[in-house]
Every structure is written in C-alpha cells, then in structure tokens.
Amino acid sequence: xxxALGGTQTHLSPLLCRAASNDNYSNAPxxxxxxxxxxxxxxRAAELADMSAGSTSPHPNxxxxxxxxxxxxxxxxxxxxxxxxxxxxxxxxxxxxSCRRSTAYxxxxxxxxxxxxxxxxxLVEAGxxxxxxxxxxxxxxxxxxxxxxxRGHGVQVDVVGEDLKSKIIENARKSCLLVNAPLICxxxxxxxxxxxxxxxxxxxxxxxxxxxxxxxxxxxxRSRVFExxxxxxxxxxxxxxxxxDNPRLTARHGGGHMPMRIVMSQSLDLPEEASLWDVSDxxxxxxxQRGARKSFQKLLASKGxxxxxxxxxxxxxxxxxxxxxxxxxxxxxxGGTLAAxxxxxxxxxxxxxxxxxxxxxxxxxxxxxxxxxxxQMTQALDLIDVCYEQVGPDMLxxxxxxxxxxxxxxxxxxxxxxxIDPTVTPYESKIIFFYKTWDPYGxxxxxxxxxxxMPDVNGDYATWLSVEHxxxxxxFVGVDDPLAQDCVERIKSAKSPEEAxxxxxxxxxxxxxxxxxxxxxxxxxxxxxxxxxxxxxYPHLNSxxxxxxxxxxxxxxxxxxxWGGGRDGEGLNYLGRLLMQLxxxxxxxxxxxxxxxxxxx
Length: 601
Ligand SMILES: NC(=O)C1=CN([C@@H]2O[C@H](COP(=O)(O)OP(=O)(O)OC[C@H]3O[C@@H](n4cnc5c(N)ncnc54)[C@H](OP(=O)(O)O)[C@@H]3O)[C@@H](O)[C@H]2O)C=CC1
Ligand SMILES: Nc1c(N[C@@H]2O[C@H](COP(=O)(O)O)[C@@H](O)[C@H]2O)[nH]c(=O)[nH]c1=O
Hints:
Bound molecules: NADPH dihydro-nicotinamide-adenine-dinucleotide phosphate, the ligand Nc1c(N[C@@H]2O[C@H](COP(=O)(O)O)[C@@H](O)[C@H]2O)[nH]c(=O)[nH]c1=O
Shape: globular
Largest sheet: 9 strands, mixed
CATH class of the largest domain: Alpha Beta
Structural class: alpha/beta
Number of helices: 19
CATH superfamily of the largest domain: Dihydrofolate Reductase, subunit A
Radius of gyration: 25 Å
Low-confidence stretches: 1-30, 409-429, 596-601
Strand order of the largest sheet: 11-10-9-8-12-7-13-15-14
C-alpha cells in the first residue's frame, strides 16, 4: 500500500474520535461485510482529509482511498492545501496500475471549482470502477457536479446516505461531516466556524482570584492547543486577557500554518508593549469601537497591527466581517466575559474544555462562561456529540453547541438567500464577483491552481504553481542581494498559493530593503503578464473569461483595496480591470481571426 501524503500533519483530530470509535469494522456483526468495508474506507478517507485541517482553508479537506476488489488498500492521498494536487490524483498516482476496476473512497464529493474536472478525470482515466462518496459537496453550485460527471463516464457512484444506507455506514458519514464541519457550518450560517476553548480547574476556575492563569492545564494539553491553533484561521481574545496574560497565541507545535491573532477591545485601553504587537511571527488585528483612542490606533498601526472599527463591537458583527474576509474557522481563547457574549450571540459552534485535576478556589476567581441570563437548570445548553479524551493528566471534553447543519435541505445559494431575506440587497445585475476559488468564477482568482510558464530575465522559462506564486516572487526579482534571491526561491517552492502569499507579504513587511525599488510601478505589469499567460494556456479558462462578455468583473476582496473592489466598492479593483482588459484583447483577437477566416473563405 502506498500513501501519497500531501503534507506533514499527522495528528488525528479529536473531532473524529467519537465517530471513529463507534464504527469499528471488526465490531460490526449486523452490518453486511460490504457495508462494513465501505464504512471503514470512507472513515479512513475522512481521517486522511483531517491530516491537513487548517492548511487547506478556506478550501475543504479532501481524502481519498483506493481499494482493490480484494479489499487491499492500493493508494491514499489527501489535499495538502488549496492549489495543491487533489487527493484523488495523489491516490491514483500512488495506486498506479492497481486502480483498474478498483473502488475509490472519498470523504467528500470533489469540488471542481476550476472547471477542469481534474479529480473526476483522474479517477476515470485510471479505470476506477466504483466511487463511494461520504458526503456531497456542501456548496450548492458545486454540489452534485462531480457525482453526475462520474456517472456520465459510466462509473458506479454510491453516495453514503442515498445509495448506501445502514447504521454502520451512517457513522462513517458522520466522520465526513465532522472533518468539514467548518465549511458546512460556515456555508449555512454566514459566520466562520467558531470553537470556544478554555482550560479550567476541577472547581471550574479559569484563573486564580488575582487573575493569574499560567498554567492550569498540563504541557501536553497546551501543545494540543498549539495544534488546534494551527487548524484555525484566527485566534480571538478580549482586551482583558491581553492586559492580564500578555499572550502570544502562536501555533508552536512545529509546522502547520500560523493563525491571525484577533483582539476584541471596546476601550482600546491596552498596553503599549505586548507580545501580540510583535507581528514578525504572526499578524494581529485589533477590532474596536468606532472612534476609540485614535492615538493608540495610530501606535498600533505603526507597529504593523491592523485596526478595524465597528459601530457596535459585538461578536456576531465581528464574525460576519471575518466571514466576508474569507475566514473558515476561528478559535476563541478568551475569558468568561467575552465567551458569554459570543455564546449569547449564537456564534459558537463547538466547545473544547480542558479540565485539570486541581482546585484553586476563590470566591471571585473567574469561570469559563460569564452571565448568560439563565435562571433554571432546564435552560442549560446541552452539548451534542460529546467526546471525552484523557490528555496527560487532564480531561478534554468537547462537543457541539449547535448541530452540524443537515445537508439535505440544500444550503441556499446567494440568489436564494436574497429571495428569502428581503433586507439583503441583491448584487447589481451585470456584475460578476469572484474571490474565493470555490466561487462560481473562482478560477479567476490568483490562488486558483493553474501553473504558468514565465520567462525570467534571461528569457529562460520557469514554471510557477500559480499566478500568486509568480506575483509574490516578482517583488524580490532583480535585487542584487542573495537574501532577495533566496526569497524568490522560497516563494517559488511554496506548497500552496496561500503559503506563497504569506511568504511574499511577510518578507515585504519585514525586509522592505529586499523589495525592488520599482515595485509600485512594476506590479501591474507583472500581474498582467501572469494573468495573460494563465488565460492563454488553459482553453477552459479562456472560454470562461470570454463567456463573461458584457459583465463587469469585480474581485470581491473586502480588504485588498488595490487589486480588489473593497467592502463597499471603495477598492480600485485592478485585478477585475486586468481581466476585463484581457477579455477585450482576446475577443478582439478572436473576431479578427474570424474575420480573416471569413475573408479567406
Ligand atoms: N484558562 C483559560 O483558558 C483562560 C483564562 N483567561 C483568564 O481570564 C481572565 C480574563 O477574563 P475576561 O475578562 O472574561 O476575558 P477577555 O478579556 O477575553 O474578555 C473580556 C474583554 O473583551 C472585550 N470585549 C470586546 N467586546 C466585547 C463584548 N461584546 N462583550 C464582552 N467583552 C468584549 C473587552 O475588552 P476591553 O476591556 O479592552 O474593552 C472585555 O474587557 C484573565 O484572568 C485570564 O488569565 C483568559 C483566557 C483563557
Ligand atoms: N491558562 C491557560 C490557557 N490560557 C490561554 O492561553 C493564552 C496564552 O497563550 P500563549 O501566550 O500563546 O502561551 C492565554 O492568554 C489564554 O487565552 N490555555 C491553556 O490551554 N491552558 C491554560 O492553563
């Protein structure tokens, strides 16, 4: 058996522990043997998908297992990050010739948001006879497309819960739902998937009465927290936690990605020096009330900390804002005051409580959740799908505060949401917005996984994994410094467009001297050349671009006011403009060539 690992994270999330333990292949006397085998491989596909949790964001997690007719595993793979090779291709490559007449098990229907049917084509071309799909794609515009395409190629497709029904297979489906719970919840609620995590003593305190809290949970529990951070797009704390703990909130387990740190502070009465203001390892955003301490906002900005003002600072508005910025999952590591506010706002989906076997006492020692206004025990919020796990000396109890939304009533599309909610203004007609690569026009994003070949200064062609890789590296090209050349190489070999963007932006921020002096005037041309190459070499992308004729193209980035259109249309939308310019060039070329062939005919 070959395992095509797309990445390095190998820890199986506690997300899966309950579903996994309930569904043991060897303990399934009442299920048919074939259902038991299907269930065990679907669950394995979910385990594989989970290995890159956090790294694929905002993309879902995909895993694939290929099993021969005798039941042997021939190949496995998982998506490492957005823009890297799909799980199905990795598994097919690992299985080689054994793919013929084998079954492929997928935790989730492939998304095919780039219109190239790469995953479906790999399975079909490899001679896969049957595909078992754990869950259909949660996003409506992608749902069912790959299942239909596979069936159209004569592949037998069994969707769990539709074509395969039994208790054991239903438990396997649960594993698939858990792995992509962030995407499913986010799609249904229009806020990121939020997890509240805290460490408390056996007598229910998250700090001593003095406010001292380092440490309640054990070292091993805290290193588990580092992994959780690595699986999240952002960590949230309140102002008081910054004042009391001076936290770093970084993922320090060696590997994985570094989440954004978000501080919610109404007063902005925060220390001038704090670990979170050092943005060399990870970025920080402070969200606050409009008009709060303008001089302190300036100080934060001078340290590279972004400040975002809200009319009224509440967890729901803040999470809706970060949803619009593309965040998939958020870890709340705040104290009880903010935790209560977030639970009351209905934006916490899951809770992780580390309980340490120690007692601190203290009448005024804080507890994990402040005032919720409940007076009867019958009002208590019951956790769903509770999981118990011993971590070193501590006990970790986790569970959902809200059920994972059912996929069967289809999550409404953007248009349907407007129809249901008349307060939401529909997009103006004749505008096509694109941003995330899973959107209907997601292939227009620079993060779409379309490698390009571009000439260097000597005219030699090199392959770049995405437009974003090329664009970020151009910042440092031609600078006479080995460190700048090293930046170019590191960006070039970044595993995903996100990694390339992160590297390019952080090196530009940290070492402005390495950025070429003409960058501001050269960047549009660099982008134009890269985008032109992409839309010239991929015929299906070229057709997609031409099909938008007559529409204004807007990159719906709420925060990039140069390449994107901004939150309220205040952005310059240079990426949209370049695409429209290219579109007219291509249309001009095709009408000229039509005219030539007409004349020739
Ligand atoms: N053991 C554990 O797991 C943890 C323990 N702790 C401990 O908890 C204590 C801090 O607890 P606590 O003050 O509750 O925590 P937080 O600081 O995390 O949350 C409260 C603060 O959040 C800010 N805030 C912004 N918007 C809101 C809102 N809508 N509702 C409520 N708060 C908002 C305010 O900051 P501002 O005042 O700046 O306006 C407020 O003071 C410390 O002793 C710390 O050590 C903290 C985290 C985890
Ligand atoms: N005290 C406490 C926690 N506290 C949380 O961790 C933050 C400190 O993180 P860092 O500075 O990155 O090490 C702190 O501000 C609070 O949010 N967490 C735990 O897992 N166990 C503990 O006992």
